[in-house]
Amino acid sequence: MKFFLGDDWQVTPAGGATGEAYIAQQGDQKLFLKRNSSPFLAVLSAEGIVPKLLWTKRLESGDVITAQRWVNGRELKSHEMNGKNVAQLLSKIHRSSELLEMFKRIGNTPLTPQIIIENLQKKLSLLQSYDEILEHGLIYLFKQKDKVEHSKFVVCHTDVNHNNWILSENNELYLIDWDGATVADPALDLGLLLYLYISESHWESWLSQYGIPLTPELHLRMHWYVVSQTMFIILWHIQRNEPDQVERWETYLVELIRDRTH
């Protein structure tokens, strides 16, 4: 990174799963650099969803480096996910026609329930042994698939974990790490957020701040997506040979399926 910034810049890894993010500092000036970040970062920046994009540079290797304004701030804590600012920013993202158009232009097709089931089937077929709990999960998804079909697709972040929400010193809220974003039913993001962070008695008031009512149909769609995403999490931990995490998430999956079948 230093070779195009100059020797007077100090560049250090910023951590993260991809290892492609860096912090660059020169005196009081600080930048957040990323290699091959989301192609729609400019739109996210223009809409104030991520910190301001300052410049983009293509290297001879073909890699693209982006530089964003460094934000002095902190990650949200779990209990802060019930805040009005979170509901309103997620609503802004889901209602952004500019983001949706950008996704369509780069060939992103909607992640439908059918595609999710097919992806899970492929992963299940690669397992070394039969997993009864995951098979029950797949049966549930099949049975409910036609009930959760939804025609209005939006850009979903897909990883609304509290660690990806950054609150600046000036009280500006950002949602970062867009590498897994896709076009899908907004219930995908909503379900993951509500089930993980908000007690069910507060779902109605949280969704009213987001801008929609809590209906039985929305509840079912959110539940379906939480079941499917929980299965992906289990498969990820199986692949990493983490039996304690597999057991923890499979216990949760059993509870989820029982809740909707009793």
From TrEMBL:
<dbReference type="InterPro" id="IPR052077">
    <property type="entry name" value="CcrZ_PhaseVar_Mediator"/>
</dbReference>
<dbReference type="InterPro" id="IPR002575">
    <property type="entry name" value="Aminoglycoside_PTrfase"/>
</dbReference>
<feature type="domain" description="Aminoglycoside phosphotransferase">
    <location>
        <begin position="14"/>
        <end position="211"/>
    </location>
</feature>
<dbReference type="InterPro" id="IPR011009">
    <property type="entry name" value="Kinase-like_dom_sf"/>
</dbReference>
<protein>
    <submittedName>
        <fullName>Phosphotransferase family protein</fullName>
    </submittedName>
</protein>
<dbReference type="Pfam" id="PF01636">
    <property type="entry name" value="APH"/>
</dbReference>
